[in-house]
Amino acid sequence: MGVDTAVAPETRAREAAADVLGLRAMRRRTTAWLVGLSLGLLATIVAGVGVGAYSVPAGTVAQVITHHLVGWPAEQTWSAPADAIVWQVRLPRVLLGALVGAGLAICGVALQAMVRNVLADPYLLGVNSGASSGAAAAILFGFGAGFAEYALQATAFLGALAASILVFLVARSAGRVTSIRLLLAGVAVGYALYALTSFLIFASGSAEGARSVMFWLLGSLALAQWNVPFAIVTVVVLLSVALLTLWGRRLDALAIGDETAHTLGVRPDRLRLQLLVVVALCVGVVVSASGSIGFVGLVVPHLARRAVGGTHVRAVAVAALMGAILLIWADVLARTLFAPQEIPIGIITSLVGAPFLLVLIRRLHAANA
User: Fold this and answer.
1) Interaxial angle between packed helices 207-217 and 127-141, expressed in degrees from 0 to 180 and rounded to the nearest 10
2) Does residue 105 contact residue 259 with C-beta atoms inside 8 Å?
3) 148: which residues sit within 8 A by CB, 6+ positions away?
4) Domain annotation for the chain: domains and CATH numbers
5) What pLDDT, in 10s, does the model give residues 283-305?
6) 49 and 90 Cβ atoms separated by less than 8 Å
7) CB distance 85 to 127 below 8 Å
8) Which residue of 1, 40, 148, 287 is surrounded by the most CB atoms within 10 Å?
9) pLDDT tens per residue across span 45-93
10) 8 Å CB contact between 323 and 106
11) What whole-number distance in Å separates Cα of residue 365 and Cα of residue 260?
12) Which of 80, 21, 34, 32 lies closest to 56, judged by CA?
């Protein structure tokens, strides 16, 4: 008995020390990932701007960007076409790709915690389908003409917002908003809106309009410009990253289960509603600017958790950087693989994401066997 009493405090001390050392190791690992990914993102932006049918050296890209941002170097030593290509054409496109990738990735992290399903992604809530229906209405029938040159983005966003509200109302109509009800409501609304989009394409009778809609449905960054939609995407994505990082501990509790969340002082219903609003706003704005791009919100959250663990405070930031890098390179491939013809970026992300999904399903099956 005396031996047990003497050993127990030493055992507890060793376990506490191990916990502290493990926490410090994870913090160092997270810092290393964040620094490495941040540097990787900067290098990816420069490389993404330089690569294309008209190649621009990395040094020239850096000079053009710093010249426009801070006025250095004061004397322009590069050609006018290079300046226009870097600043007016490729840089807004690459930055929009980074924002879209980051936005889809963090929304995937939030959704997987919200519905406690590792296969969840922004398609789950029907937001993409709602945006697609709005865009199809604008392209095929001229809806949203009052928004002038921003008609496509505006109607796509309104469609995404309407889909989000509909999903919440359907989930709420059966009582308390739970993970499974949100999941089922999102799937049902998504299929219904996909059918609506198909009907709009069929009813228009316009082959050119149908082709434009289908290209948009698969995603493209070709509309990127220094304009109001770009500024809105920037603000919304950055705010979403900040909010989800701030709610990281609450997401941890929600991902474990409603009972645990209640024990820790988190109200699951209220948090799900808040997450639904943030995700719907972020995905709606992103999809309205880039079209419907799949698999980023599914693949990247898993990669982030494998890198820095399941704690959402760390996973959100890492997922944002990973998503940004992934989508920039996907866009580079989309516009250079068959240059001068551009292919939809969604094809590239699907080619990357589909094998990953098969591997994930195989691992889940092995874990449950």
Assistant:
1) 150
2) no
3) none
4) 93-368 (1.10.3470.10)
5) 889 988 999 898 999 999 999 99
6) yes
7) no
8) 287
9) 999 999 988 899 999 999 999 999 999 988 889 999 999 999 999 999 9
10) yes
11) 26
12) 80
- Total-model pTM: 0.90
- Dig out the tokens for 183 from the structure: 């999941």
Q: With residue 225 as reference, give the H or E element that holds it.
A: none
Task: Look at the alpha carbons of 240, 296, 224, 164 in this order and tell me if their dihedral is positive or negative.
Answer: negative
Nearest residue to 353 (alpha-carbon basis) of 119, 40, 102: 119
Cα gap 63→44, rounded to integer Å: 16
CA distance 91 to 104: 20
Q: What 3-state class would DSSP assign to 160?
A: helix
pLDDT tens digits along 135-182 = 899 989 988 878 877 888 889 889 988 998 898 899 888 777 777 888
Query: CB neighbours of 80 closer than 8 A, spacing ≥ 6?
Result: none
Q: Is 78 helix (H, G, I), strand (E, B) or coil?
A: coil
Please state, in angstroms and rounded to a whole number, the distance separating the CA atoms of residues 3 and 347: 66
79-130 tens-digit pLDDT: 999 999 999 999 999 999 999 999 999 999 999 998 888 888 888 778 889 9
How far CA 360 is from CA of 328, 353, 366, in Å, comes to: 24, 10, 10
Would you put residue 294 in left (φ > 0), alpha (ψ -120 to 50) or beta? beta
Place of tokens 């219903």: 269
Cβ neighbours for 201, distance < 8 A, ≥ 6 positions apart = 136, 140, 209, 210, 213, 214
For 142, 200, 211, 290, the CA distances from 205, given in Å and listed in that order, are: 14, 9, 11, 25
Q: What is the DSSP-derived secondary structure letter of residue 177?
A: -
